[in-house]
Amino acid sequence: MKLERFLSHDEQQLITKSIAAAETRTSGEIRVHLTPRCRGDAVKAATRVFDSLRMYETRRRNGVLIYIAVESRKLAILGDVGINRKVAAGYWDEEIALLSQALKTGRNVEGIVAVIENIGSKLAEHFPYEPDDENELPNDISYEP
Question: Are residues 56 and 78 in contact, defined by beta-carbon separation less than 8 angstroms?
Answer without folding.
Answer: no
